[in-house]
Design goal:
alpha/beta, FAD/NAD(P)-binding domain, 7-stranded mixed beta sheet, binds NADP nicotinamide-adenine-dinucleotide phosphate
């Protein structure tokens, strides 16, 4: 039995772990088996995280956060959570390997998952030209033509990154105005390899075994065209990952976990949520980190108010470590 289990290992989860560990709460972080480190593991240079005037590579930043959390005593398990029992004083977290860990508090920081266009051939050709991660797959498209779908920060970052490899990057957006920040827009507009296709939606993805093109529809004229590309990078945002808890925790109209005001308190006592999974608006690494701070402090305060006999259930750090 632990004081706190943190589910998720992005900026929110690791920052919560740093704070909880420094408060001697010996947090256990369930980091995921594949996606540990969160979305920043899939990005290249992060230029807007405070403290790095020359930028920092996303995976390096996450590695530093993990190292900092471990330095103060956080333990990390690289497995996926398959079940959560959040009611009652003792919370139970079941992992993919069948282990069940118990804690008096849970901090839920699972971030968000990439959105799909919802086309049948998008799924079929996923990994065969359809991708959600330019940093993972961009190098396969040297001297090729690729399309990036979306008009937000992610789409422009992906497009700019892909110009390292591809000859031409078509930025396909459903409107005639971008949502992305001015700095990213300026950079993309100045890049001769990026061509903007405005007011276009993707209706089809073509190719038997690999992508050979995409079918576009002009939202104003209805005209259908085919764009010859061998890669399609989908960057149309992400949805909060709530599937493990949506039947236990209250959600907002936007689908994020509902928290009480500026706190991280959910509708269940002892369960706190942080990062993109509670944030429909800002979704920045720095705001997620701050949100992790809030969750750790809320959990600490909650624990300080628990009865001594409940706190006595928490095992020694040595017994906890042996259970991992
Ligand atoms: P986003 O800001 O929600 O933008 C999604 C884009 O995809 C929008 O342009 C949207 O079009 C378009 N879109 C959504 N659904 C679509 C569909 N079904 N078909 C076609 N287009 C669709 O998502 P994001 O770019 O992933 O960014 C998410 C958050 O992370 C934002 O807060 C962003 O600032 C942040 N972020 C920051 C950085 C950075 O600071 N360097 C980098 C990446 C992300 P509409 O514009 O018409 O709605």
């Amino acid at each position: 039995m632990r004081h706190v289990i943190i589910v998720g290992s992005g900026p929110a989860g690791y920052t919560a772990a740093i704070y909880a560990a420094r408060a001697n709460l010996n947090p256990l972080v369930i980091a995921s088996s594949v996606e540990f480190g969160g979305e920043l593991m899939k990005t290249t240079e992060v230029e807007n995280f405070p403290g790095f005037p020359d930028g920092v590579m996303g995976p390096d930043l996450m590695d530093k956060m993990r190292e900092q959390a471990e330095k103060f005593g956080a333990e990390i398990v690289y497995d996926d959570v398959t079940g959560l029992e959040l009611d009652g004083d003792v919370k139970r977290v079941t992992l993919g390997n069948g282990d069940v860990h118990e804690a008096l508090t849970v901090i839920y920081a699972t971030g968000s998952a990439y959105r799909k266009l919802g086309l049948e051939d998008e799924s079929r050709l996923s990994g065969y030209g359809v991708s959600w991660c330019a940093t993972c797959d961009g190098a396969f498209f040297r001297q090729k033509k690729v399309a990036v779908i979306g008009g937000g920060d992610s789409a422009l970052e992906e497009a700019t990154f892909l110009t390292r490899f591809a000859d031409t990057v078509y930025l396909v957006h459903r409107r005639d105005k971008l949502r992305a920040s001015a700095a990213l827009q300026d950079r993309a507009f100045a890049d001769p390899k990026i061509q903007f296709l405005w007011n276009k939606t993707v209706a089809n993805v073509y190719g038997d075994e690999k992508v050979t093109g995409i079918g576009l529809i002009d939202t104003e004229t209805g005209e259908e065209t085919t764009l010859d590309v061998t890669g399609m990078f989908v960057a149309i945002g992400a949805d909060p990952r709530t599937h493990l808890v949506h039947d236990q925790l209250d959600l907002t109209a936007e689908g994020t976990i509902a928290v009480d005001g500026r706190s991280s308190r959910t509708n269940i006592a002892g369960v706190f949520a942080a990062g993109d999974v509670i944030d429909p608006t800002y979704k920045q690494a720095a705001t997620a980190a701050g949100s992790g701070v809030v969750a750790a402090l809320d959990a600490e305060k909650y624990l300080a108010e628990r009865a001594p006999e409940l706190l006595a259930l928490v095992e020694s750090p040595a017994a906890q470590a042996a259970a991992v």
